[in-house]
Amino acid sequence: MDKIQMTDEEFCQEYIATKIKDEEKLIMTGLKFGLACAAFVLFLVLTVITYKKNARDAYSFLMITIFIVLPSLFFSLSDFSECLTESKKRKKFLKKLGLSEKQATYRYNFIKYKKIYMPIVQRMCRLNLHPILKQLDLLKSSFRSTSGILTEFVFEREYTEEEYEDSIIQIKQLNRPEKQAVVELLFNISILEDGIHDDEWAFLMEFIDDLSAYIDNYANWEKYKWDNRIEELKNKYTPFRRSFADENVNEKKDDETTRRAIPSHLKQYYSILGLEEDATVKEIKKAYHALALQYHPDLLKNANRIKECDEKMAKIIEAYDKIIKTRS
Fold it and tell me: What 8-state DSSP symbol labels residue 262?
C-alpha cells in the first residue's frame, strides 16, 4: 500500500464526511426506485390495454399513474440519487487512498482508539532494534490490527517530542487497568530478544514513575492495587535484566575457609538450574536469567506451550528462591 498523502486528522474528517450514513438505506432506496419504475410501467400498460375496452377504466388508471405512481417514482428517484452520490464520493475517497472499505475502517479505528499508544511503543521498540518481526507479531496480537498499519505507525513514522508528551498525557487519562496493560505491553516488548538492557529498564521505570505520580490522585484502594501490581511486574521481569546476572553482589569468597556444606535437600534445586553445588551467587543469577529467557510463558516463542512453561518456570523460581535464601 502506498503511503497515504494526508494527515491523520484529514483522513478522519474525510472518512466521516464520505461515510454512507446508512448502508441499508442505499439498498432500500434502490429497491423502492425499482418497484416505483415497475409500478409506473405496469399502470401505463394497464391504461393502454383498458383504453381499447373501457375508456373510464383507462382514465382511472391514468389518474393513479399521474397522482400516485409518478410522485412515488420521483421521490424514490431523488432518494436513490442522493444515496448514489454518497456512494460515489466514498468510492472516490477510497480510490484516492488505495484502500478498501474494510482497510479504511481499520485505519480510522486505529487512529481514533490506538494511535495514542504508538509514540511510547515506538520508543520502547527502538531501544531494541533487532527483533522487529517479533515486535510486529506481538503488536498484532496486542492491538488486533494489521501489519501494514502497525508498520506505518510504529516502525516508519517519526514522532516529535510534543507527540510523545501528548501520548503520555493521554495514557495518564486512562483507567488503572488500561494503564497496567500498557506497562505490561512495554515489558513484553523489552524481553523479545535477549533480556532487558539497562536503557530499556530505565525507560520502563521512568514511564512507570510518570504514571505513578498521576495515580497518587486516585482513591487509596485504586492506588494500592496499582502499587501492588507494579511491584509484581518488577519482581516478575527483574530476572530478564541483562545486568541482573552481572550484579556486583556481596558474596563470600568460595575458598576452602569460607565454603559452606550444601544441605542435601538443596541439591535437587541446583540440578534444576543446571549448576553444581559450589556455584557462586553470580553463576546462580546467570543461570536463572538464562532459564527465564528460555522458559518464561510471557515470551512470544512460548505462546504455544504456556502451560508447560508455567510449570517449568514455577520450578525454576522455587529453586532460585531456595538457593538464594541460603546464601543471604
Answer: P
